[in-house]
Amino acid sequence: MRIIKPEKLNKGDVIGIISPSSPVDDLMKLENSVHYFEKQGYKVEIGKNTGKGNGYLAGTDKERIDDLHKMFLNKKVKMIICLRGGYGAGRLLDKIDYDIIKNNPKIFCGYSDITTLQNAFLKKTGLITFAGPMAGVDFCNEISPFTEENFWRIVTNNNPVIVNYPDDEKLCSLRKGLSTGRLIGGNLSILSSMVGLKYLPDPHGKILMLEDVGEVPYRIDRMLNQMRLSGFLGGVAGIVLGKFEDCEETNPERKAITLSKVMSDYFGKGFPFPVLFNLSHGHLKNNLTVPLGIKVKVNGNKGSLEFLESHFIR
Question: Which one of the listed residues 21, 173, 211, 280 is annotated catalytic?
């Protein structure tokens, strides 16, 4: 896989905001995020169709594609950040001109449904993207200091970054061992729906990151089983799991298996590679920005994740 790296962000650069998935429920969130970025010393370019609504979609497929293409083609824009996730990015996969993305590499940031685009970009172009906070979710109100500090440290720094965690959110090991590989993944629900598609990177020798929220254990079990039976999980060299908040069964009338038991069934004794758990990333207040596509080291003996290379052109 040939990797393409964007340039880092500098003060005064232009940040583009687009909405390739669902619309925000209040346009003040867009306005507040613009004010936040301008206050940090950046200029902001809003996609022409950003803020539109089409049911659960943020505009028609054509409108969302147009904004995506135009933002990558805009030479002034150095970073593209998505307004929010939700649903809809998958409808764009066969309509994207991937040569535009490949020939105009720049920082592209989001998570949740944006996982679709990030993995497709990596597969089709080799572009390193950033699984991290979004304009209309994290930067529109009071932002977590952890999320804010790590985001700016990642997108403005040329050097490999040491991953820092809050004291009460340390990584732990579900399976010991040591492995290196390029990092792929993101939201579990999205990734499981992409299995078998030509837009998902080859998992062989990769480190797979998975996160989700609000999915009870049997649903997580179903998604992991799909990935297992497809052979996708069998090709990876290591796993990094998020915190999976609100993912336990709360209905006392339903028979259930705990989330930890589900994870142990898939990634316990029979799994041959290291597995880390409790990464503070994704649908969380404390959302670590993670460069997808870079080389990382997973240390299941120490419970650590290390970025091994710069995520930007030096």
Answer: 211
Domains present along the chain, CATH in parentheses: 14-155 (3.40.50.10740), 172-307 (3.50.30.60)
Whether 166 shows a pLDDT value over 70: the answer reads no
HEC sequence for the chain: CCCECCCCCCCCCEEEEECCCCCCCCCHHHHHHHHHHHHCCCEEEECCCCCCCECCECCCHHHHHHHHHHHHHCCCEEEEEECCCCCCHHHHCCCCCHHHHHHCCCEEEECHHHHHHHHHHHHHHCECEEECCCCCCCCCCCCCHHHHHHHHHHHCCCCCCCCCCCCCCCCEEEECCEEEEEEEEEEHHHHHHHCCCCCCCCCCCCEEEEECCCCCHHHHHHHHHHHHHCCCHHHCCEEEEECCCCCCCCCCCCCCCCHHHHHHHHHCCCCCCCEEEEECCCCCCCCCCEEECCEEEEECCCCEEEECCCCCCC
Pick the catalytic residue from 19, 22, 112, 280. Answer: 112
Mark whether 311 is an active-site residue.
no
Please tell me the pTM assigned to this model: 0.96
Annotated active-site residue 280? The verdict is: no
